[in-house]
Amino acid sequence: MTLRNQVLVWIGLLVALILILWIFRGILLPFVVGIALAYLLNPLVNQLQKWHFSRTWATVVVLICVLTIVISVFFMFVPLVGQQIVGLIQRLPRYVADLQKLVTEWSPEVNDWLGPERAAQLQTTLNDLARQALGFIATLPGELVNIGLTGASVLGFTLLAPVIAFYMLVDWEGMVRGVDSLLPKRHKGEIKTILQDIDNSMAGVIRGQGSVLLLDAAFYATALSLVGLNFGLVIGLLAGFLSFIPFVGAVFGFGLSMGIAIVQFWPNGWMVALVAGIFLFWQFIEGNILYPKLVGSSININPVWMMFALLALGAVFGFVGLLLAVPMAAIASVLVRYGVRKYKESPLYLGTVRSGPDRDVSPR
């Protein structure tokens, strides 16, 4: 098979995969969650196997432990978080009104500092942001229904995802051997190298970045609650869990926290500065310690490409697309880097393309 035909075959397989995902997007959620859970827990199952557990019993033990932890956390925190979410939605219009009132009271000082024209622009910007925030909250329930995050779908993937994860974990080694047996023998080594790069990138996405996300949520929720910020728990959790979108989690949490802190603590500027310091401190820790240690260089994706993948796949596949966006972007990044490397090794790039049977037109 010529190189051209090989490329066409791989492109055809990719198009077929995308079409299948689009057709079955309505039922993919439990499978995506189950496969991700199996991938995340596979190292633990492998470790138990080294301690002379059978594969089945190792899977049962790991899943029971994980489900026990998840259910315990659910019953401990979900009622409190639910109350705070409802309270925040109810109080947010009042917070916006209070913040606008404070800005009005500061108008003489702001006019002297910025000038009348810039002060008016600031007031208009704040009003626009307030309207957008309130509009987003008002339409949030409808948006959750549109992307498929309804009570029935949540219940469905909650019940099915552990079952899918169990069967995936039990048969993981068999699936790996099956894929390995299907690889073309001539290119087997090169394909396995690419698959290893994809595995490293996926480990960075699911295990490394997932760990960073959980640490972000735990720190923000704890720190904001300890300083006494109203609804600090839910704001911290949202800021942490939105961290999988570059900059969005920190910007969202910082903006919402500062708005509430100004209304709640003013004129105590030290408390407002303390809330700001929580985000600045943790962003330094995340960027200089957590990301290099837990993720490293396994995810080499430009933030702009990451945001494009989230928006594009979210628009096409809904909530499932948001879950698939980061792993798919990581896989695409590995394949693009491989393609660039092969191109730089090719005669086309090196300038040794032959125009005839015996004619070399490479530059002298």
From TrEMBL:
Its main location: membrane. It is a multi-pass membrane protein. The chain crosses the membrane at residues 7-40, 60-81, 144-170, 231-256, 268-285, 305-336. It is found in: Cell membrane. The keyword Acyltransferase does not apply. The keyword Heme does not apply. One of its GO terms (cellular component) is plasma membrane. One of its GO terms (biological process) is transmembrane transport. Keywords: Cell membrane, Membrane, Transmembrane, Transmembrane helix, Transport. InterPro entries: AI-2E-like. PANTHER family: PERMEASE PERM-RELATED, TRANSMEMBRANE PROTEIN. Belongs to the autoinducer-2 exporter (AI-2E) (TC 2.A.86) family. This is AI-2E family transporter. It comes from Devosia oryzisoli.
